[in-house]
Write the structure tokens for this entry.
Amino acid sequence: MSSVLFLLNEIDKGLGKTDIGLKPDIWNVTTGDIYEIKPFAEGEDIAEGQAGLYMLLLMKYGHYNVRLGDQNDLGVKGVFSIDDKLVFYESPKNGVILYNYITLKDFKRIEYTKNLILAISLTTLLYFGYGNIPRIPFPALSPGF
């Protein structure tokens, strides 16, 4: 935030050192949209609270055209790869973007398992026919599975 306010010639308007250290993850100075990005594990409430704090801080220094970014805007949900990871992100609330990732190795293992289950299901369906699949009790999984 400090670099953006400096570029806007607002760094000398009494911005304290504490305020300068606070920075929203995304601030579109054209639209006023603010987003805070957090891992899914940290949760949306923390991100929403921080985004609200940044919005109030910017208003304190005269930027009244700020708001929590719309959760339905383009670009606030999707998937991308970086290094050996797939990163999934979405916006469950205005001003909040949550993300999680999985390694490509784990993703390929999940895809293989999913395809294997699908193949077994289709084979069973073709062999027995719809409605004739034998019902076999399945043992309960242990909690650590």
